[in-house]
Amino acid sequence: MDKRSIAIIGIGKIARDQHIPVIGKSDRFELAATVSQRGIAEASLPVFRSAAELYREMPEIDIVAICTPPGPRHLLVREALDAGKHVLMEKPPTQTLSEFEDLVRHGEARGLVLFQTWHSQYNDAVERTREILAEEGVRSVRIDWRESVRKWHPGQDWVWAPGGFGVCDPGINALSIFTRIMPMPVFVEHAQMAVPANRQTPVDVEIGFRTADAHGPALSAHFNWLEEDGEVWTIAIETGTGRQLSLERGGTVLKIDGETRVAAPSEEYERIYERFAELLDTGRSDVDGTPLRLLADAFMMAERVEAEPFDW
Ligand code: NAP
Predict the structure, then answer these.
(1) Looking at 13, 25, 85, 91, which residue is catalytic?
(2) Domains plus CATH for the chain?
(3) Alpha helix locations (H) across the chain?
């Protein structure tokens, strides 16, 4: 099968850690160019300083993966759709819901494939958990999402600027699993966000959720960005029949009553590109905004408290 040519826009950590190597071993895609403000090329491939240059110089490339921070994404995706390109977007999709909805409408109007990736959803353990909760119901969910900002976003000041999400940048990965596995809609009941005195976005977040049932399950989440002892990306669940589920390692491992039932190496980005190929083959978009909406609700509901100043 012929490989589809794709260009990556924004050559930062995630482009280098995942997109470039995964495209490199894909039998469905071939990296044809990069767009990098700093001029970062991949091997001997053409590199352009702006997307406009790419579209002008290599019009035959009709697929782009946008791997910038969410800030510039709305305009970049608009520009790509206007140029007739199919688009894959990194998470979180945009800084606001209005921007996201605009992109969904614009992609539809242009008849192009728009793919909103939520990488943490691409795990068998997540899918198995979703099936179990659909059958057994749910009594409680506790999300515990802790990692080091210094390790995962070294020197990236955009995460601390307004619209940069703070610890909710990784936290939205947990919410993308949560909204995928829950058998009913969930709502933010209360939230507390601790913001370093010298920054604009939270370093520590606690969220309480509810369902439409006043006597529904107990649901909560904690995100922290100062965990220097390795990552804790865990979701503890009690099902409606009393079984204890533990989704661990970012959704790659599922334990049931203490026994490991699913454990697979993370192949999230391999699966993302398989899914993208499928969407391109069938001309369909995949644009789930639920995790972003839930997070936006948390920001609307949050009590804000001051935390210690943060410096790299
Ligand atoms: P990053 O290292 O800061 O890289 C982003 C790149 O985008 C920059 O290096 C820059 O590359 C380009 N860029 C274009 N416009 C920019 C702007 N206005 N401000 C800053 N950079 C701009 O960020 P990242 O960690 O790769 O994260 C990018 C996206 O991937 C985020 O939405 C993040 O949530 C998501 N993500 C990150 C991780 C992770 O482990 N860090 C994991 C999964 C998903 P050029 O100079 O080449 O243009």
Answers:
(1) 91
(2) 4-116 (3.40.50.720), 121-265+296-307 (3.30.360.10)
(3) 13-14, 20-25, 51-57, 73-82, 97-110, 124-136, 149-152, 168-181, 268-282, 290-301
